[in-house]
Recover the amino acids of this structure.
């Protein structure tokens, strides 16, 4: 976040946005112990991790807003 803020402050033409999803429901989670994942899921309001499609749905409006699509 700091790098994006510094870059945006230094380079006036640079447009920055961020999405910070944390864990996502993908096959990569198989590398973690199920007990750890259950603890992490319980920390979220929904009790689950986001899906890649949900994250993409957050990114798309940012691209449209920045006129990149």
């Amino acid at each position: 976040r700091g790098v994006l803020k510094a870059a945006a402050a230094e380079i006036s033409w640079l447009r920055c946005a961020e999405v910070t999803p944390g864990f996502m429901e993908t096959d990569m989670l198989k590398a973690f112990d199920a007990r750890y994942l259950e603890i992490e899921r319980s920390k979220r309001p929904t009790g689950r991790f986001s899906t890649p499609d949900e994250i993409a749905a957050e990114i798309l409006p940012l691209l449209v807003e920045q006129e990149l699509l």
Observations:
- Helices lie at 2-10, 34-42, 52-65.
- Residues 52-65 form the longest helix (14 residues).
